[in-house]
Amino acid sequence: MFETLEEEKKYIMNGDLLCNDVKRQIGMLLLDERVQRRLALSALSDKIGIPPYKIELIEMARRKFHWQAVAELLRFYGKKIELRLIDVE
User: pLDDT by residue (tens digit) across 28-58?
Assistant: First the structure.
């Protein structure tokens, strides 16, 4: 698939950057939702049974992204994720 190791590294790095960007956007949207609802991290944790540190890791897009916790947050907020392609300027 790749002719050189350099091509493979570039492809992988770009994929990692894309993945991190998607996680960051999801985290920011979930944080915005919590702030709009005026929910403290501890109160949200108590309501949905997810430890506060996991919620914070998602909202800040740090380290491992806990997709099951993302799904639970979406259920709690009554939201879903919708992806769109937009033109690059």
Answer: 999 999 999 999 999 999 999 999 999 999 9
The torsion region of residue 63 among left (phi > 0), alpha (psi -120 to 50) and beta comes to: left
Mean pLDDT confidence for 53-72: 92
Q: What pTM was estimated for this model as a whole?
A: 0.81
Is the distance from CB of 31 to CB of 6 less than 8 angstroms? no
> What is the C-alpha separation between 4 and 11, in angstroms, rounded?
11
**Domain count across the chain:** 1
Give the H or E element holding residue 16: helix 5-36
Residue 88 in domain:
no
**φ, ψ for residue 84, nearest 5 deg:** -135, 150
Assigned domain for 85 exists = no
Identify residue 62 by its one-letter amino acid code.
R
Please give the residue that has the higher pLDDT: either 9 or 61.
Answer: 61
